[in-house]
């Protein structure tokens, strides 16, 4: 088994640029709109994963609350543009979706990588879920990495927690930086 390095809380988010569905590109760790100062990056397995589809559709319900707290949102996978196009036809999401995450980028993000079980599942290696919240300084404020699709942050708890963290009254630091 190869050792895998994981991103540390409080570390700078790696510079990772991916194609954005609909045109252009996105740097994952930087907000894509002027109104936002933080970014929530949701890495999903791909269009083949029904749990990912459900999670992304549920995430859409929190988009307004995230925006109200100046947190931009982007979802990304290793899928191709064509795969994302087909997937978006089945999803009900309005937030930006990026694609083409490479294995080198997955490794830079400390994600677990899986081989497809069959050609019907996927035609490429893909990452397991990851969720990163990058603050205004480009530092990782929240890190959640899973090795399977069954374990992901509860979105109500996550968004409520981010609202609390971002409140100027709370001065909540990045947690988990002591190792």
Describe this structure in words.
The chain is of the alpha/beta class. The chain has a single domain, classed as 3-Layer(aba) Sandwich (Glutaredoxin). 25% of the residues lie in helices and 20% in strands. The chain has 5 helices and 9 strands; from the N terminus they run βββααβαβαββββα. Strands 5-4-3-8-9 form a 5-stranded mixed β-sheet. Strands 1-2 form a two-stranded antiparallel ribbon. A two-stranded antiparallel ribbon has the order 6-7. β1 and β2 form a beta hairpin. The longest helix is centred in the C-terminal third of the chain and has 12 residues. The radius of gyration is 16 Å and the shape is globular. The two termini are 23 Å apart. It comes from Microbulbifer aggregans. This is Redoxin. GO terms for molecular function: antioxidant activity; oxidoreductase activity. InterPro entries: AhpC/TSA, Thioredoxin-like_sf, Thioredoxin_domain. Pfam families: AhpC-TSA.
Brief description of this entry?
Residues 7-170 form the Thioredoxin domain. The chain is 25% helix and 20% strand.
What overall form do the CA principal axes indicate?
Answer: globular
* Count of folded domains: 1
Q: Give the mean pLDDT.
A: 92
- Secondary-structure element sequence? EEEHHEHEHEEEEH
- How many DSSP H or I helices? 5
Largest sheet: 5 strands, mixed
Strand order of the largest sheet: 5-4-3-8-9
- Highest CATH level, the class: Alpha Beta
CATH architecture: 3-Layer(aba) Sandwich
What fold name stands as the CATH topology? Answer: Glutaredoxin
- Counting helices, strands and paired strands, the structural category is alpha/beta
- Helix percent reads 25-40%
Note the beta-strand portion: 15-25%
- Euclidean distance between termini CA atoms: 23 Å
Poorly predicted spans: none
Instruction: Provide the CATH superfamily.
Output: Glutaredoxin
Number of strands: 9
Gyration radius from CA atoms, angstroms: 16 Å
Organism: Microbulbifer aggregans
Domain Thioredoxin: 7-170
Protein name: Redoxin
InterPro entries: AhpC/TSA, Thioredoxin-like_sf, Thioredoxin_domain
């Amino acid at each position: 088994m190869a050792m895998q390095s994981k991103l540390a809380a409080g570390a700078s988010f790696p510079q990772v640029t991916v194609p954005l569905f609909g045109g252009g590109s996105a740097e994952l760790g930087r907000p894509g709109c002027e109104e936002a100062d933080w970014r929530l990056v949701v890495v999903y397995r791909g269009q083949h994963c029904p749990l990912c589809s459900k999670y992304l559709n549920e995430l859409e319900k929190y988009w307004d609350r995230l925006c109200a707290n100046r947190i931009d949102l982007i979802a990304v996978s290793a899928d191709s543009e064509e795969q994302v196009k087909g997937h978006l036809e089945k999803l009900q999401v309005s937030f930006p979706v990026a694609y083409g995450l490479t294995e080198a980028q997955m490794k830079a993000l400390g994600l677990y990588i899986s081989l497809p079980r069959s050609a019907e599942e996927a035609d490429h290696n893909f990452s397991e879920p990851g969720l990163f919240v990058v603050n205004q300084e480009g530092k990782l404020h929240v890190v959640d990495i899973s090795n399977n699709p069954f374990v992901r942050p509860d979105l109500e708890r996550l968004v409520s927690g981010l609202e609390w963290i971002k409140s100027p009254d709370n001065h909540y630091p990045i947690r988990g930086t002591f190792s």
